Amino acid sequence: MAKLILSMETTMLKEIPLSKERTTIGRKAHNDIQIDNLAISGEHAVVITILNDSFLEDLGSTNGTFVNGQPVKKHFLQNGDTIELGKYRLKFVAEAVQQASGTDFEKTMILRPAAAQRPATEPPAAEPAAAATPVAHTTTSPGMAPLPAAPPAAAPAPQPPLGAIQLLSGGNAGKEMELTKTLTTLGKPGVQVAVIARRPHGYFITHVEGANRPVVNGKVLDAQAHQLADHDVIELAGVKMEFFLKN
Question: CB neighbours (10 Å) of residue 98?
């Protein structure tokens, strides 16, 4: 699990695990990370965590939010990033397992077929010998039923259908956008923003910014991620759009 390490100057104050989808930062007591300092706005920023991805969103703070010395409004966090809020620092630390998961997964997908054909410990002649065995049985024993063929290699896990949204209102009505990214941000900054996450078992919409939450099929969403179904109608920042799955 990723975490934030809060410090001031050279003094570490505490560690905060990012165990929630929304971790709020601000001066007011209701924030998940409260920093009681006048340089910090009441509701200063929020960290959205979905699966292994976290991104930082400034909530219209007075003095701004900085990452690695640069002002940001929205920033995808990477291991070692330092969020700067006045004299305070929040260092983003990704769990080692999460950091390795992306690269190791790609390596596994590449190496697994080769490993299945010839394990590293198998002698070079073992495979041809195994392949010749069925031929010997079928030719020398006419009464014997042929040996069953070797089971085919396991097929890769099926990918979920690709999702897309079509705008139903507004100046861009009729336009479509495929949801190919892990995270797709929708809405108007400063008014209402939501993110649609593409997960292995479907698409999920989460409220990010704004006093009003997104509406799906006439129902206002809560703070938790909501799984989208085919032909759901989303209302966000005054625009209606339809989510659908492409065949």
Answer: 15
DSSP annotation string for 62-98: SS-EEETTEEESEEE--TT-EEEETTEEEEEE--HHH
Please count the other Cβ atoms lying within 10 Å of the Cβ belonging to residue 106. Answer: 10
Q: Is 231 left (phi over 0), alpha (psi -120 to 50) or beta?
A: left
β-sheet bridge partners, residue 93: 3
Asked if 95 and 77 count as a contact pair (C-beta separation under 8 A), the reply is: no
* Alpha carbon distance 16, 23 (integer Å): 9
Global pTM value: 0.45
Integer Cα distance of 13 and 196 in angstroms: 34
pLDDT tens per residue across span 225-234: 899 999 999 9
Distance CA 29, CA 11 (A): 22
Q: Where are the alpha helices (DSSP H) in the chain?
A: 96-117, 126-140
* Cβ proximity of 25 and 33 under 8 Å: yes
Spatial distance between the Cα atoms of 31 and 160, rounded to a whole number of angstroms: 36
Check whether 219 has a pLDDT greater than 70. Answer: yes
